[in-house]
């Protein structure tokens, strides 16, 4: 889709990652979000988005780790609410799955 591959622009990589995430192309979304982290590891959004990808892949532990990073970096109250909600659901789901096994 994009002619330029991973330019050194944080916003471009975030928007590209969101584009691919909405297309359910987790591999490309993950690449762009990781590039955004490489460019600026102090921003919470790429960690949050990678956590969403990891949940869809069933990797709940890694998702929680990324959401915790995002929570520590998050200046905005709205993102904090989303992260806490995701963590709560993930913990509940993990506990449920343990009971089922």
UniProtKB/TrEMBL annotation:
SMART domains assigned: TPR (SM00028)
SUPFAM superfamilies registered for this protein in UniProt: TPR-like
InterPro entries xref list: TPR-like_helical_dom_sf, TPR_rpt
PROSITE patterns hit by this protein: TPR
Pfam families reported in the protein's UniProt record: TPR_11 (PF13414)
Cross-referenced Gene3D superfamilies: Tetratricopeptide repeat domain
Record's protein name: Uncharacterized protein
């Amino acid at each position: 889709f994009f002619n330029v591959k991973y330019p050194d622009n944080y916003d471009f990589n975030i928007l590209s990652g969101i584009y691919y995430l909405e297309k359910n192309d987790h591999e490309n979304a993950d690449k762009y979000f990781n590039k955004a982290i490489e460019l600026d590891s102090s921003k919470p959004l790429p960690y949050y988005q990678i956590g969403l990808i990891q949940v869809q892949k069933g990797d709940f532990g890694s998702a929680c780790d990324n959401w915790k990073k995002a929570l520590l970096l998050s200046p905005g109250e709205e993102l904090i609410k989303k992260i806490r909600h995701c963590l709560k659901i993930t913990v509940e789901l993990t506990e449920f799955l343990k009971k089922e096994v």
